[in-house]
Structure formats: C-alpha cells, structure tokens
Amino acid sequence: MVFYTTCILNGCMVNSKNICALKRYSKLFLVVSKLKITWLVNLNLKQYIKTLTTRLIYMTSDKRKKMMKNKTIFAILHITIFMKMASSNKTVNQIKAMYVLGDSSVDCGENTLFFPFLLNNLSLHPCDGPPSALLPHLLAKKIGLPYPVPFYSQNGSAEVLLRGVNLGSTGATIMSNPTNSVLQSLNQQLRQAFEIFQLLQLELGQETATNFIQSSTLFYLSFGKDDYIDLFRSNSSMGPGSNTTQLSHILVDQMTNAIEYLYGSSVRKFIFMGILPLGCAPRFSQSANGGVSDGGHGGDKVVCADEIDNLIIEYNAFLENRIVSLNVELPDAELIFCDVYRMMMEIINNPNTYGFENVKSACCGIGMEHGMSGCMSMNMVCQNPSTYVWWDLFNPGRVVSSLIADSTWSGELLPDICRPTTLQKLVYS
C-alpha cells in the first residue's frame, strides 16, 4: 500500500522531497486516525509530519501497534493524503522567458529605429505611461517573469537573452511595407528571433538551447493592427470597398508561416492577440452627436465605422480558425487566441461598468475627438487619463490594457476571451 500510494503521488508530479518523506514516514501515517480528517487535509505535508511526530512521542507502543493493524485506517489515511496533495500541488510553472513579436501594440517606440520621424502623424508618445503598462509586460508580470528587454537594447549575452526579448516594433506589419522600408515586418522579427536561437546555441550548446526553447519559453505575437491602419489611412485602391477578404487570407497565411517556422525551431507555446476594434478608435469613429466634438463629455456614445470593424472581425476569425487547425496538426504545440476585439467592445458598450467616462475621444491628440493626429506632447494629455478608453488615435489607455490582461490571464472579467484556454492554464500546463 505504501509503495502503491507513493507511485500514485509520483504520477501527480509530487516532488522528490515529498516522496522521500512519504516513504520515511509511511508507518507514522497509520497513527493519526484520532486526528480529524477535515483538520488533516488542511495541513501541508511538512506540518502534518511535524504534528504527527509530536503526537507519536506521547503515544504508548501498544496504541501504535494497535493502529498499525487497522488496515481500513491505513487505506483511508493514504487516500486522504493523495487527494489533498493531488488537488493542492499546483503544477510548476516551467516558463522562464517570454519573447514578444508585434507592432505598436507591444512597443512604445524604444524598439523602433528613427522613431517617430517616419511614422507620418502617429504619436510621439504612443503609450499611456511607461512600456511596463503595455499588455505583454503586464502578462509577463503575472507569469512571474521580468519585462522582456527591447531587442535593440540587449547586448547579445546569454544571460540577457534567457530573460526574454521584445522584438516588437511600432509600425511593424505582417507584410513588408513598400512605402517605408525602415519599418519592420513580421519576417524581419523572425530573423531576429533566429539570431537569438543561434546565440543561445553558441552559448549553451545545441541540446541545452533546444530544450530551453521547447520547454521554457512562451512566444507572444500581436500583429495586423498596423497593416489595417496603413490600409484605411491610405488613398490606394485597397480601401474598405476593395477585395479585403483576400488580404485577410494573405495576412493569416503569413502568420501561419511564422508559426510553422517557430515550431520548427522548437517553440511549443504560443499566445496570439487579435486586432482591437479599429473602427471605434478616435481616428476612424464618428461621434453620435453628428460630428460635433465636445471632448466626449455629456455621455455621448461612439459610432464605430462598421465597414472597418467588419474587416477586423473577419481577420480575427480567420486567424483563430487557423490556430484551431494548427493545434491539431502540430504535435505538442499549444496555441491560444485572445479576442481583444471582444473585450474592448464589452468596455466600449458598457463604459460605466468598468469606470470609464469617455469612449470616443483620445486622451491625447489633435483635432476632432483628438484623433486626427497623435500625441505629440505630454502637455496635450487630458486631465483624467484613467477615465478614457483611448489614449491616442489608435491605442487604448493603460486601464484598458490592465483589464485585458486580467481577462487574458484568468478570464476574471470576461470568460473565454482566450481560446481554447486562458494564459494561466497554458503557462501551468
């Protein structure tokens, strides 16, 4: 029975110290029948053994022998211990580093060359607060990881690379930008990831590096936002009325290629963030009062640009369906899709529930709804940023990011925002 119980516990990933303790104190377990079971299961193993040993000292040898002969008590106690430890022994978090790839949703400009001179009326200050207020940084904190260092700030040492790296860049797109070759593309960030893999192999050896990438890393990808911003702001023939369904397929195909490349490099855990509702952003939305802006006060609601949001919904659906397929096709891969669009629409449609007063104006910007141009000076910032859904013409504020982080991590505010599971369950799987 002792051996059997120990084997069961070992199967539940109980650590070696606990197993040794079970073997060493297996006979002692028999003598606690006089302790109430409800009290016993609220003790951890160390406390349990300490209490048991103390009581054993004051127990006569006859009582000990009598209890050891009671096989029913023997079995019940072992099962009780097993049930308690199986339910309370949380699987260890194996993730040691997070690597971030993405666009302006993951970078405040510190990872973007020549920022902001080549970004054409976008914000000089694209983030509501420091980079630590960005969604991937908030999630890294929940995992228990340091903030991923920007790629252009790291020195190439294994010590730094093993802590995680942010490859994301403001203005980055899935497709290469023919009008601005300085802005990064998905493929450029993949090449940077490959450089990191090579450096780790040189520093750690190929086998150790491969094991680290496979078992201890999480890759966070957030792309597509700047592709659609460029599309909707351009005067090209590829406007909202053109064949954008084909574009969505092309973008998702490129994302699929990236997943397969990273998988081939031993990456196994991925989180993908969908695109937020750009049609509701101050740059593209219309105010409910006929276009006369009052800064968002008086309870005016935002009128989102449906033709834009429909395309975002289409892209997100294509990406999620592809992720569902890849979860089946790629052995040992674990991929989740997080519906940022859904979470933000919940906030936009129910602002009072989440403590917001303004859903249509940017906190910092120029022009109608502060959305015609970006946040060029901190002197332009609104009085109470925490009451605004939008920070600038395209980016949400830090409170929104915090709410999204909570839902992404555990589904605390909005269940099922991440599918098929939460980030917390992915990390501890």
CATH architecture of the largest domain: 3-Layer(aba) Sandwich
Please name the fourth-level CATH homologous superfamily of the largest domain: SGNH hydrolase
Low-confidence stretches: 1-60, 71-90, 237-241, 287-299
Q: What is the makeup of the main sheet?
A: 5 strands, mixed
Helix/strand order? HHHHHHEHEHEHHEHHEEEHEHEEHEH
CATH level-3 fold name of the largest domain: Rossmann fold
Strand content: 5-15%
Strand order, sheet with most strands: 1-4-5-8-11
Mean pLDDT: 77
Give the radius of gyration: 27 Å
Q: Return the CATH class of the largest domain.
A: Alpha Beta
CA distance, first residue to last residue = 30 Å
Can you tell me the overall shape? globular
Structural class by helix and strand composition: alpha/beta
How large is the count of helical segments? 16
User: Count of DSSP E strands?
Assistant: 11
Helix content: 40-55%
Domain module count: 2
Structure, described:
With 429 residues, this protein is α/β, with parallel strands linked by helices. It has two domains: 2-88, no CATH class; 97-427, SGNH hydrolase (Rossmann fold), CATH 3.40.50.1110. Helix content is 44%, strand content 9%. It has helices at residues 2-11, 16-24, 37-40, 45-57, 61-68, 71-88, 135-143, 158-161, 186-204, 206-216, 225-233, 244-264, 306-329, 340-349, 398-410, 423-427; strands at 97-102, 149-150, 165-166, 217-222, 269-273, 286-287, 302-303, 334-338, 358-362, 388-390, 418-419. A five-stranded mixed sheet has the order 1-4-5-8-11.
